[in-house]
C-alpha cells in the first residue's frame, strides 16, 4: 500500500464509510458465512477488473495481459473467470464468489456471449434442481446460483446500445441484473445525471427487468427500508469508479484517482456511487438478492423446466401409445 508520497504505508485497509447507514446488520445471521455469487459483465476496458479489486479491497485479479500489436485484432472468445474471496463486512462473514466474463462484447457475434452467459446461469439452477431430486442429499453441496449480475454500461453519455438492451432483457428473467456505469468519472456531474435519466427511460421503454429494489407497496417493509429503497431506485444505474491504490490523507486511508486537474475519491458519495453500491451488495441487500434468486427466479426456472419436461414426457408417451396401437 502506498501513501501520497509513493512510500509504503501501514494504513488499515478499511476505506469504506457505510457502517452507519440504515439497514446494516439486517442480514447478520450467518455464522458460517453467507455465500454470495456475483457476476460481472461488460465490454473490455470498462473497469470490471479494477472494480473487482476495489470491491474486495485487495488485488484479487491481475490486470489483463494486453495482446501484442500483431495479435491485437484477434478477438478473444468470452470465458468465465472465478475468484473466491472471504470477506467480513460489518461483522458478517461473506463467502464471495465472483464470476468475471472477460471477452464479452469483443467480437461482432454477441449472440454467442448472450447464450453462454444465460446457459451458465441456468446450469447453476439445474444443479440445484438435480440436488433437490436426489434421494440422499450431498451435505457438501455448494450453491453456485448467481445472486446478482452487475452489467457495466459504457460512459458514452448517449443512451443504451442494442447490446446492453438485449443482454439485460435476456438475463433479467434469470438473475438480479443491476446496471452500473463503468468509469463514470469520465462524465461531468450534469452529464451523469442526464445519462442516468436516459438509461432509465430506456429501461422503462424496452421493459428491461432490472433489479429495482423491492417496492415498499409490494412488500411489508418498515419505513426506514422503504425510504432507503426509494432513494436507491433514484440512484440507478450506479455510477462506479474503481481504484486499487490506497493513499494516506491526514492519517485516513482514501482511494483516489489522481488527474492533473484534480482527484476523484472512490468512496466519496459526491464523486461516485461505488461506496453505496458496495454497501447494497455486501450488506443491506445481500439477503434480498439471495432470497429473490431462490424464491422468484429459481422457482420460475424450476416451474418452466419441469413443465417442459412433463410436456416432453407426455409427448413421448403419446407417441409410444400410437406406435403400440399401430403394431397391434
Ligand atoms: N477513468 C477511469 N479509469 C478506470 C476506472 N477503472 C479502471 N480504469 C482504467 O481503465 C483501464 C481498464 O480497466 P480494467 O479494470 O482492466 O477494465 P476491464 O473491464 O477489466 O477490461 P478487460 O480486462 O480488458 O476486460 C485501466 O487502465 C484502468 O486503470 C475508473 O473508474 N475510471
From TrEMBL:
Residues 1-26 are annotated as: Disordered. Residues 32-308 form the Septin-type G domain. One of its GO terms (molecular function) is GTP binding. PROSITE patterns: G_SEPTIN. It holds the Pfam family Septin. Residues 7-22 have a biased composition (Polar residues). One of its GO terms (biological process) is cell division. One of its GO terms (cellular component) is cell cortex. Keywords: Cell cycle, Cell division, GTP-binding, Nucleotide-binding. PANTHER family: SEPTIN. Belongs to the TRAFAC class TrmE-Era-EngA-EngB-Septin-like GTPase superfamily. Septin GTPase family. This is Cell division control protein 11. The lineage of its organism: Eukaryota, Fungi, Fungi incertae sedis, Zoopagomycota, Kickxellomycotina.
Amino acid at each position: 500500500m502506498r501513501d501520497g508520497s509513493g512510500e509504503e504505508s501501514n494504513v488499515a485497509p478499511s476505506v469504506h464509510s457505510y457502517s452507519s447507514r440504515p439497514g446494516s446488520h439486517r442480514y447478520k445471521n450467518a455464522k458460517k458465512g453467507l455465500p454470495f455469487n456475483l457476476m460481472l459483465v461488460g465490454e473490455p476496458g470498462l473497469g470490471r477488473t479494477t472494480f473487482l479489486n476495489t470491491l474486495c479491497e485487495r488485488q484479487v485479479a491481475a490486470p489483463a495481459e494486453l495482446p501484442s500489436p500483431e495479435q491485437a485484432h484477434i478477438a478473444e472468445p468470452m470465458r468465465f473467470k472465478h475468484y473466491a474471496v472471504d470477506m467480513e463486512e460489518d461483522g458478517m462473514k461473506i463467502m464471495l464468489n465472483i464470476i468475471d466474463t472477460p471477452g464479452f462484447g469483443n467480437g461482432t457475434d454477441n449472440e454467442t456471449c448472450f447464450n453462454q452467459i444465460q446457459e451458465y446461469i441456468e446450469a447453476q439452477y439445474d444443479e440445484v434442481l438435480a440436488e433437490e431430486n436426489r434421494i440422499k442429499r450431498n451435505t457438501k453441496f455448494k450453491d453456485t446460483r448467481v445472486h446478482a449480475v452487475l452489467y457495466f454500461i459504457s460512459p458514452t453519455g448517449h443512451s443504451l446500445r442494442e447490446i446492453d438492451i438485449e443482454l439485460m432483457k435476456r438475463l433479467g428473467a434469470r438473475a438480479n441484473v443491476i446496471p452500473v456505469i463503468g468509469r463514470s468519472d469520465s462524465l461531468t456531474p450534469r452529464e451523469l445525471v442526464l445519462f442516468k435519466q436516459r438509461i432509465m427511460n430506456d429501461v422503462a421503454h424496452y421493459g428491461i427487468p432490472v433489479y429495482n429494489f423491492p417496492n415498499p407497496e409490494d412488500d411489508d417493509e418498515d419505513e426506514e427500508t422503504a425510504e432507503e429503497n426509494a432513494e436507491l431506485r433514484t440512484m440507478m444505474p450506479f455510477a462506479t469508479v474503481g481504484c486499487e491504490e490506497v493513499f494516506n490523507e491526514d492519517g485516513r486511508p482514501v482511494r483516489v484517482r489522481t488527474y492533473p486537474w484534480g482527484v476523484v475519491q472512490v468512496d466519496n458519495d459526491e464523486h461516485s456511487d461505488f461506496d453505496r453500491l458496495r454497501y447494497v451488495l455486501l450488506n443491506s441487500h445481500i439477503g434480498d438478492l439471495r432470497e429473490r434468486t431462490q424464491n422468484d427466479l429459481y422457482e420460475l426456472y424450476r416451474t418452466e423446466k419441469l413443465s417442459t419436461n412433463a410436456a416432453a414426457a407426455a409427448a413421448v408417451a403419446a407417441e409410444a401409445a400410437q406406435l403400440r396401437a399401430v403394431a397391434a
